[in-house]
Amino acid sequence: MASSQAGAMGPGNRTGVPEFVLLGLASRPATRRLLFPFFLGTYLATLLGNLVVSLLIRRDPRLRRAPMYFFLAHLSLADVGFTSAAAPTALGTLASGSWAVPYAACLAQSYVFVAFGVLENFLLAVMAYDRCLAVCRPLRYAATMSPGRRWGLVGAAWGLAQLHALLHTLLLARLPFPARPRLRHFLCDLRQLLALAAGDTRPNHAAVLAEGSLAVLGPLLLVAGSYGRIVATLAQLPAARGWRRALSTCGAHLATVALFYGTVIGLFFRPAGHYAPWRDMVATLLYSTVTPLLNPFIYSLRNQEMRGALRRVLGRGPAPQGV
User: Fold this and answer.
1) Higher-pLDDT residue of 312, 240
2) What is the C-alpha separation between 234 and 247, in angstroms, rounded?
3) What's the pTM?
């Protein structure tokens, strides 16, 4: 009897799991009918806003040469990938009440979601570092933030994000699961998958706390240090022109950073015994949909350079000089 139970839950069972069932955001059909157009509109607006930002930066030579907009273009692409990793299954659960995801597709979704989430995390830190150099070392900024260094920072962010997601996916793939497991979520969330796993999840939780701490808290400290130095530099220039605008821009950025990091830290750096599916799902919803939706407006569409580039692309403004 014991051997048969062990065989049923042993390593061979993880390849026998045909699919995971996502229960989604709401169980009542009336609630799902109300939420579906809202989430569909949010997803389409996120795609449109971030793709417009990427297109404008690519089409406008003035923006393309500026390091800040170079990083912003990659952040917009990360936002598109991040929200697109979760939106299809979220909309599917709202349309049908539940959504069956094959085992391999569930692991792939978990990988993509983690990779783009960590990438956005790193890019926020890179952008904070870029702004710190521009404000605190304006005379050396152009030489320091050279094209080679820009590509090096972005390449490191993309590469580290893939390694981070690969580690968690490989650790997850070794675990056995019960037949047709049901997730109270709208995507294949890492924490919920670990809660459903039948094997030893201690290495997985150790990786979340140890390696995850480096991937999340490290960039967060860099963001805080960069903006702290910006504020300190501006405070030493009592008559500096534009210091109010600089502080306002930092405030908007820090508001988005607080929303993103606050939900991520509350979600991942919590004891396993305090696991709450509904609270985790709301937190995931905030940083995977609200932040990518707001980023184009906070970082760019309120910016004069971006509005000028939009007018030039539409043929309603003068072309940039020296091009």
Assistant:
1) 312
2) 8
3) 0.83
